[in-house]
Amino acid sequence: MWDWNYTLSFIPELLGALKITISATFVGFFLACLLGLPLTMARRSRCKPLSLVTAGIIEFIRSTPLLAQVYFIFYVFPNYGLSLSPFAAGVIALGIHYATYLSEVYRGGIEAIPKGQWEAARALNFSKSRTWIKIILPQAIPPILPVMGNYLIGMFKETPLLSAITLVEILQVAKITGAQSFRYLEPITIVGILFLVLSYISSIGVQRLETKLNRR
Predict the structure, then answer these.
(1) Which CATH architecture has domain 4-215?
(2) 8 Å CB contact between 187 and 177
(3) Alpha carbon 164 to chain centroid, angstroms
(4) For residue 183, what are the CA distances in angstroms to 11, 19, 137, 141, 142?
(5) Measured by CB atoms within 10 angstroms of the end CB, which terminus of the chain is less buried, N or C?
(6) What is the C-alpha to C-alpha distance for residues 150 and 40, in angstroms, rounded to an integer?
């Protein structure tokens, strides 16, 4: 049977851990967005060695488990003088892993721009930076926002993996709470509801942002 008194007793601790989960998700996603675009540029480069090396790195990261990458950053990097906190290691792992996926999303959006847009920029004697900032990216980003939103939600649901490097996020708190009382129904159910609610809110936010940009 569901015990509301027991549920209310662990809710404050769960909400405290929720802040860590949300922070890890959004910082990791911000990092992925920043790294994804340079990876796209490098892969589209006319310099074949750079393009091939970048493509290899992207495929390697996408083809290996995120959990293995989290372990590597947290446990192997210290052997080379780089010790990171669980939060920093988790955020970096999430950011790099999802940057490889977002790089492909960026590439799809950029390659969907008609060639006439590039030709018009050259005809107007736009510099490369001005062409990207004023013409290409404003047209490439809005259509790919739904896909980026899907990756944001996916990243949010991947944060429980960070408990493997001792980051205390909401699922880890739920497991600890359940282990202490041998009651898992309430904490695991509440965590599931929180994931559902926050994923839904994120999807609504992405939809509104997409609508706003399309109107512009």
Answers:
(1) Orthogonal Bundle (1.10)
(2) yes
(3) 18
(4) 14, 24, 51, 46, 46
(5) N
(6) 19
Contact 145, 213 (CB under 8 A): yes
Domain boundaries, the chain: 4-215
- Each residue's pLDDT expressed in tens, for the chain with a length of 216 residues: 888 888 888 899 888 888 999 999 999 999 999 999 999 999 988 889 999 999 999 999 999 999 999 999 999 999 998 899 999 999 999 999 999 999 999 998 888 888 888 888 888 888 888 888 888 888 888 888 888 988 998 898 899 888 888 888 888 888 888 888 888 889 999 999 988 998 888 888 888 887 877 666
The total number of residues written for the chain in this structure: 216
Q: How far apart are CA 30 and CA 150, in angstroms?
A: 14
